[in-house]
Amino acid sequence: MISGDSAHHDVVVAGAGPAGLACALRLRRGGRDVLVVERARFPRPKICGGGLTGRVAEALRVLGLARRVPAIGAVCGEVRFGRFRRTVALRRPVEVVRRDEFDADLLAQARAAGIEVHEGEALTGFEVAGGSVAVQTDAGAYRARVLVGADGAGSLVRRRVVDARAAPVRLLQVEVPAPGLPTDTIVFDFTPMRAGLRGYAWFFPMPGRQFNVGLLHHPGADHESLDLDALLRRTLTEHGVVALQPPRAWPVWSYDSTQRAAIPHVLLAGDALGVNPLSGEGISPALWQGILAADAALDALQRRDFGFGGYALAVRRATVGRELNVDRRLAGMLYGAGGVTRWLPLLLFDDEMLELYAARVAGVTVLADEKPKLLKALVRHRFMLSRWRRRLDQET
C-alpha cells in the first residue's frame, strides 16, 4: 500500500533509456511535471548492436538532443550467406555507437534540460485507483496521473499490461577485436540459418577498433534447444575472430500491434512495448514510441480522460508502428518454417529488394510507404525462386 504522503507528479516514467527520456523531454516541453525513476546507474550495460539506424537522427532533432559520443559512420551494408557476399551503399551513413556511452550521454542531456531522474531507484509496484496511479519504488512512493512503462524488456509494467504468450526474441552479443572486415560497413550474416538460427549474425564496427558482434534468434518449437553460445563461437571462427570475453545474453520482445499497449493511466514504450521484429533494432522505435507516449499523456492530461483506449491504434498508425508492422510480416516470412529456402533468396539475390531495405536501414525510406515496390518484389520472387534456390545451393 502506498502511503498518503507520497509525492505528486503529472507523470512518472519508469526507465531512463531512450524511450523514457524521449517521453520525459516531450512532456517537459509540454509544460508538465515529470519524474523518471531508473533501477540502474549510468553508464549501464545494454545488449545492442549500437546502430543508429532508421529515423534516429530525426527523433533526436525533434527532442532537441544530439549524438555527442564517439561513433563509426558505416557507409555500406553487406549481406552474407555462405560464400555469397553482396555490398550495397547506404544513402545515408549509419552511425554505430557504444550503447552504454550513448544512453549515459542522453541522460546527461535530459538532466541539462531540467528532467528529474532518480538513478538506482527501481520500480517495485503500482496501483491504479482513485483517478491516479500510486507508484512504489525501493526508495520511495509517488502518485501520478500517468505511469509510463519504459523499463525495458524485463518491464514490471509490461507484465501488468500485456498478456504475453509468445516466446521473446533472444539476443547474444560480444565485443571483439577488429576482424578482417571493412570498418565502414555493417555486416548481416545469414549463414547461421543453416544451423537452425531464426535470425542473423551481425558485425558492426565500433569506435576503438572493436566490432560489436551478436546473434538474433526467434525461438520456435523445433529450435528451442539451439545452443546460441556454440553457434556464436562457430560464427566467429568462420570470420577469423576469437572472443576475449563471454557473450552477454538477453531476451527482448518483438512489437506486436495486436497486443495491448496501455491500460487506464498506464502506457508502454520502448523495449517494454517491443523492438523491431526483423532486425531487433530498438533505439529508433524506442525514441518514437517515447514521443507517442508523451503525446498521449499530454492529451489525456488536457482532457482529463486517462483510458488510453486509442493509444495502441495511434502507435500502429504512426510511421514507427507502420514500419514495425511491415518488418513483423517480413520476419514471419524470413524466420518462419522454410524461410531459408523460400524467402532468404529474395533478400540476397533481388537487387531492388536489397536496395530498398538498405534505404530503410539508413532512414531515407519508409518501407511501409513502398508497398507497390514490395508487391513487385513478390512478383519477381514468384518467377525467380527456382533459379535463386539453385544459386543458393551453389553458395552453400
What's the layout of helices and strands?
Elements: E1 7-14, H1 18-29, E2 34-38, E3 51-52, H2 56-63, E4 72-81, E5 84-96, H3 99-112, E6 116-119, E7 123-129, E8 132-137, E9 141-149, H4 156-161, E10 169-177, E11 185-189, E12 199-206, E13 210-217, H5 228-238, E14 248-252, E15 262-263, E16 266-268, H6 283-303, H7 311-317, H8 319-334, H9 339-342, H10 344-349, H11 351-362, H12 371-395
Parallel strand pairs: 1-2, 1-9, 2-6, 4-11, 9-16
Antiparallel strand pairs: 3-5, 4-5, 7-8, 8-9, 10-13, 10-14, 11-12, 12-13, 15-16
Helix pairs in contact: 1-3, 1-6, 2-6, 7-8
Q: Give the beta-strand count.
A: 16
CATH class membership of the largest domain: Alpha Beta
CATH architecture descriptor name of the largest domain: 3-Layer(bba) Sandwich
What is the CATH superfamily label of the largest domain?
A: FAD/NAD(P)-binding domain
Largest sheet: 8 strands, mixed
Number of helical elements: 12
- Percent range of helical residues: 25-40%
Mean pLDDT: 93
Q: Spell out the helices and strands N to C.
A: EHEEHEEHEEEEHEEEEHEEEHHHHHHH
Our Rg estimate from Cα atoms comes to 21 Å
CATH topology of the largest domain: FAD/NAD(P)-binding domain
What is the molecular shape? Answer: globular
Strand content: 25-35%
How many discrete domains? 3
Distance between the termini: 61 Å
Q: Any low-confidence stretches, pLDDT <50, length ≥5?
A: none
Derived from helix and strand composition plus strand pairing, the structural class reads alpha/beta
